[in-house]
Amino acid sequence: MARTGRTGSLMLAFALALAALSICNAAPIFRPVSDSHRSAALELFSLVDGSFARLEEAYEALRTFEILGVEKKGDVSAATCPSVASVLGSSSAPKELFYALKVNSILKCNVDDASFEVVASRLKTVVSDASSLLDFYYSISGLVLIKDQASGVEVLLGDAEGTFQSIKALSQSDGRWRFSSSNPESSAYAAGLALEALAGVISLASSEINQSMIRTVKNDIVKLFDSIEKYDDGTFYFDEKVVDAREHRGPLSVTSSVIQGLTAFASVTSESITLPEDRILGLAKFFLGIGIPGDAKDLFNQISSLACLENNRVSIPLILSLPSTVLSLTKKDPLKVKVNTVLGSNSPPLKVKLLRAFSSVSRDVPAIESQELKYDPESTFHSLILPEAVDVGRYIFVFELALQDSEDGKTYATGGQTQMPIFITGVMKIVNAAIAVLDSDLGTVDTQKSLNLDRENDVSLSANHLQKLRLSFKLSTPRGHPYKPHQAFLKLKHETKVEHVFVLGISGKQFELVLDFLGLVEKFFYLSGRFDLQLTVGDAAMENSFLLPIGHIELDLPEAPEKAPRPPLQPADLSSRYGPKAEIVHVFRTPDKRPPKELSLSFLGLSLLPFLGFLVGLLCLGVNLKNFPSSVLPATFAMLFHGGIAAVLLLYVLFWLKLDLFTTLKALGFLGAFLVFVGHRTLSYLASTSAKLKSA
Amino acid sequence: MARSTGDDAQALFHSLRSAYAATPKNLKIIDLYVAFAVFTALIQVVYMALVGSFPFNSFLSGFLSCIGTAVLAVCLRIQVNKENKEFKDLPPERAFADFVLCNLVLHLVIMNFLG
């Protein structure tokens, strides 16, 4: 019995969690284009030296500014028109011509008809020779732009049906297109380009195109929309199935391309294309759900797609948005709703109905039912004053739009029922707040103090471990109903900064916490002394949430036994841990004692004495230089020999004083070689002399 | 008895002296050189005994240079001595060249070790 009860409560908790999650996910807010988009556009599209780096970027920037109605600083025409003229004048690629013509359509530079003629004939050649989708797209779109800019130039296609067929030949069965017949990958981005190109062909056709061909394209569009993807919040988007490693196009650029193609095609066909209403609305929400993109290209894709959706012939999405989703009962805020098109323009005349509003707590019983919002023409808001019975909390409001003109139903997409999360806040009433110390078993009150929870209190209590602490108060909503706030804690903080937090229990409107110190002695680590009390009551719906110190309590707990747990270490004072440490004084090894200078110098002199003795001894022995060669050449060699030895000894002295081993060895190598040669000559001469003497 | 020992010692000393006087001059020069080297070594040892061996490498290099050069001189003396039958065919100039070369190498190493 107990086990099933537990699983039952587990299931209930799980279901509630899922419900809460679904409430969170199912109802985000989409807001139409606003001034934040305009300021983002000014920031993202930056000029380098007064002009744009490439015509493609120039076109993106200018088109975004044109749609948003932003005034560009500086004279962009003067900087950009020369590059437009140069591109149109020279034989550039179709892509370059396309962007130059796009920029010209916005800036209206003075390009003469002769240049247009040349470009038009060039583009017509490209159309007739083209085989890849991009060639078709750039050339046909270029011709359409010339048609708008220069009315006198001949742009109509001779073989429109042939071109139509060639483009159609690249389509796939799932509604996507290939980029060329050699490339097997199909892409939704290519589908968008193809639809735009086909729309161009239809507008440039000199004779009517076969309706059956147009109908097959419409079927392709329907098939393409079958492959649309969606997120949980009701947004729809297109993405590529196969990710192209070379040029990754995200869902934003792919969806943007499809929208442009679809709206372009819809604008040139006489019959309408029927697509499910929620798809178009979902696509609009996809673009609005991005918010403000951080990248210039993303912003351009977003704004140009929204401009296509703003007045298209399939269906125009209408966006319901709220300036504020938090309403205060104290300030008596009315519920305000705005309905706009995606670029923020006014909607056609319609009524906004609040079908029902239910709170997250009780989903079955709606708090509000079937109310109609009043429209204020000056502020263009639809508003409703909340009924008296509505209480604080989180709600889901379900709206429905009703167009006043039934004809508008075909043109506009309202999206049926829209869910919005609304938060209603108010001031909670807290009364009968009291704190008391009770004697344990009997429950008799030892001391009782009442609290005023509007401001800080400084209650002083004392208790020992045999007593209990009771804190109680009553909390109710502005309408008088019980409410369980998100947070209701009492914190006890000891002098040593050890903290304990307790959650207050609730029954109806009454909050109560009873701390039995007998059971808590071990939890408190046997720390006696002064504990500061702090009460926290808070909730998102509560406008007067508070965190107040309410006083202190002197607790007398028994002594800790030996095996009791120690209180956790408190974090050390940051400045002592991370502050500068004491200066380290290095203790050097005491240098060895050196002898006094005089002693050393005297011994230096003493060690020279044997040398002097040696010289004196030599004189005593009667050394002579008789054997020194007398003739010139041997004498020279002998001198060089002695000089060489002296040089080596000098080198050694230099080595000791300042040279390093390698320099010394290098020098020694030269000197040694010299010395060997000279020595050999001298000594062999001496040997030969003594040999002659001996033989003689 | 003591007198005889003293007389014997004196007689021995005189005979040694007279024998030594007969040695050729070049050998005496070499002997003088050896004595000079050994005395220098002794003075360095006395100095080290007085002040301690702190830069030990310096003491070693000085001491060993003296001893090394003394040893080389002794070798030279052996090779140059005409009474030495073993080195009869070795010209003294060659021995002297060896002596010079070995001394130069010794002193290179000593200078490196002197620090």
Automatic annotation (TrEMBL), chain A:
Pathway(s) per entry: Protein modification; protein glycosylation
Pfam families in alphabetical order: Ribophorin_II, Ribophorin_II_2nd, Ribophorin_II_3rd, Ribophorin_II_C
Membrane topology: Multi-pass membrane protein
Any Gene Ontology biological process: protein N-linked glycosylation
Keywords: Endoplasmic reticulum, Membrane, Signal, Transmembrane, Transmembrane helix
Ranges of residues in domain Ribophorin II N-terminal: 34-310
TM stretches of this protein: 601-625, 632-655, 667-687
Domain (Ribophorin II third) ranges: 432-555
Segment forming the signal sequence: 1-26
Annotated protein name in UniProt: Dolichyl-diphosphooligosaccharide--protein glycosyltransferase subunit 2
Organism: Rhodamnia argentea
Automatic annotation (TrEMBL), chain B:
Keywords associated with the record: Apoptosis, Endoplasmic reticulum, Membrane, Transmembrane, Transmembrane helix
Topology relative to the membrane: Multi-pass membrane protein
A Pfam family it matches: DAD
Location(s) in or outside the cell: Endoplasmic reticulum membrane
Pathways per UniProt: Protein modification; protein glycosylation
Gene Ontology CC annotations of this record: oligosaccharyltransferase complex
Biological process, per Gene Ontology: protein N-linked glycosylation
Protein family: Belongs to the DAD/OST2 family.
Description of how the protein assembles with itself and partners: Component of the oligosaccharyltransferase (OST) complex.
Annotated protein name in UniProt: Dolichyl-diphosphooligosaccharide--protein glycosyltransferase subunit DAD1
Organism: Rhodamnia argentea
